[in-house]
TrEMBL record:
Main location: mitochondrion
GO cellular component: mitochondrion; ribonucleoprotein complex; ribosome
Alphabetical list of InterPro entries matching this protein: PEBP (IPR008914), PEBP-like_sf (IPR036610), PEBP_euk (IPR035810)
Protein's recorded name: Large ribosomal subunit protein mL38
Assigned protein family: Belongs to the phosphatidylethanolamine-binding protein family. Mitochondrion-specific ribosomal protein mL38 subfamily.
Keyword Signal set for record: yes
CDD domains: PEBP_euk
Top-level taxon in the UniProt lineage: Eukaryota
Cell compartments where the protein resides: Mitochondrion
Length: 265
């Protein structure tokens, strides 16, 4: 019975991915402010208008658009820290549609700022500059996670160290960014999560415009999912519907093992 309990616990732990997401009440408030100008993106034979908006990301699940978060946050604040604390800010996207770019456990890196002192992010060293959301068409909602991590001391990391945390990254143009080992980064550098916010974005006119004009994507691909263009495939890799299917099969496999052990031991 004990061995079956251990096995069951292990199975449940394996199915509970994203081990690096902090849980419970965290002691420090971290916020980001974005200030987006009004913009019009002319792509896919239509104009996408983005209204001017200034807003703050201070909780989890804040809905934003890629266009209005394309530029660096205009402010980041850290409130409730002890004086003398040093921090690292990490931003990642675990919802990329390509498993070569990011996965739940090894997301795509979007930003690292380290050695922050005086609770002032502008004092930090930018190891990886902010890159805003770029959720490809038909890849559903992406959650962008920001972790505020307390350091035990100044970190001697450099940009050259980042590939250490992306050993499985096979894409040369994303070396040091794709398949970023968040859990390893946190434990190797003795970091403690003390603040956490997330923002959620799906593709928009800015992304479609950018993919066509700056990244050479075909208009057919970048306009997919809009009226008059190809519809989205029913379950593209990494899409939310595929994730639901994967979760259902994980739950069923776990339930099956559970039943097997209860019946046999
Ligand atoms: C988009 O807006 C521009 C400028 O206002 C206009 O010239 C153009 O015709 C518009 N395009 C479409 C497809 O409506
Ligand atoms: C962090 O601070 C330490 C001590 O001042 C310094 O040696 C190190 O280079 C800094 N890290 C970065 C990324 O600048």
């Amino acid at each position: 019975m004990l061995s079956s309990l251990i096995t069951i616990t292990t199975l449940l732990a394996l199915s509970n991915a994203q081990s690096w997401v902090p849980s419970g009440d965290l002691p420090v408030d971290f916020t980001l402010t974005f200030s987006a100008p009004e913009m019009v993106y002319d792509v896919c034979n239509r104009n996408f208008t983005q209204s001017a908006r200034t807003f703050t990301v201070a909780t989890t699940g804040v809905a934003v658009t890629p266009g209005e978060t394309a530029n660096d946050p205009t402010a980041m604040t850290i409130t409730g820290a002890s004086s003398g604390d040093m921090f690292t800010i990490l931003m990642v996207d675990p919802d990329t549609p390509s498993a070569n770019v990011g996965t739940t456990e090894k997301p795509l890196l979007h930003m690292i700022i380290t050695n922050i002192t005086n609770a002032d992010p502008s004092t930090g060293a930018v190891l990886d500059p902010y890159r805003g959301p770029m959720p490809p068409p038909c890849s559903g909602d992406h959650t962008y996670h920001y972790l505020l991590l307390r350091q035990t001391a100044a970190l001697s990391l450099t940009v050259d160290d980042l590939p250490t945390y992306t050993p499985d990254c096979s894409l040369a143009n994303l070396a040091g960014q794709c398949l970023f080992e968040v859990a390893n980064f946190i434990s190797s550098n003795q970091l403690t999560p003390v603040g956490y916010v997330t923002m959620v974005a799906a593709t928009d006119g800015y992304v479609r415009y950018n993919y066509v004009n700056d990244r050479g994507m075909s208009e057919a691909d970048s306009c997919r999912g809009l009226d008059g263009y190809d519809p989205c495939p029913t379950a593209p890799p990494g899409s939310s519907s595929e994730k639901v299917m994967v979760s259902v099969s994980t739950v069923m496999a776990t339930a099956w093992c559970l039943l097997y052990f209860i019946v046999n031991y």
